[in-house]
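One record is given unchanged without comment:
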Amino acid sequence: MPLRALSDPDHLPALDRRFALDRPAIGLGPGDPPPRILLLYGSLRERSYSRLCVEEAARLLRFFGAETRIFDPATLPLPDQVAGDDHPAVHELRELSLWSEGHVWCSPERHGQITGIMKLQIDHLPLSMGGMRPTQGRTLAVMQVSAGSQSFNSVNTLRVLGRWMRMVTIPNQSSVAKAFEEFDDAGRMKPSSYYDRIVDVMEELVRFTVLLRPHATQLVDRYSERKAAGVPIDPASDLSSIATVPHRPR
C-alpha cells in the first residue's frame, strides 16, 4: 500500500503546548467531520527531509483535529509508462486526493527547483476524472527543504502548480534551510523558528479548510464547465438571480 505509517503520531517534543490551540478553526465553519488532509513529499532517500517535514506536519494536523494520509511515491510509475495509468499506486493517489479536502506538498530544492518525484505525483492528478475533480477547490499548503541557505524557488513553483490544479493555496508557507541540521537522530525536528513556521502553516491550513468547507462547491462552480456539461441554470434555485432581480417600490 502506498500509504506511509506515521510513527509516534501524538508525540510533539518541539511544540510548546502553552501557546498551541488544539482547535484553531473553532467558529470558522463546521468542524465535523475532521478536515481530511493528504500530504505529499518529494524524495525517496532513506532519510528524506521532505518526508520528515511532512511527518511533523501530519502530527501537528492531528493535534489540530485533522485526519491525515501520507502518500508514499516509491512505487509510482512515470506518466504514460503504464497504459491508461492503470497502476495500483496511481489509483491510490487519485483516490486519496478525492478523499481529501486539503493537501500539503513538500519538496526538496534540487538544482534550484522541485524534484522530479514531487512533479511526478502532481502529474498523476488529472484536473478531471470521470466527472470528478481530484484537486479542484481543495486547500493547499506548500513547503520546501534545502541543503543550503534558505530559498523559495520550490515553494514558488508549488504555488504555480497549485493554481494550475485549481486549488486554494494558503498565504503562509515554510522553507527549511540546511535541513540536515534541523532533525535529531530519531528523525524528529528540533525546536526552532523553522519548526514554529510549520506550526503556523498547519494551523492556517486547518483554518482555511474549515472556513471554505461550506462554500467549496460554490467557489469552484464555473460557467464553462456548466456549459460543457449541458447543465442550464435552474432559476428557482439560482440565488444570484434572486439577489439581483429588480424590486418594485411599494
Q: What stands out?
A: Residues 193-212 form the longest helix (20 residues). The longest strand covers residues 102-108.
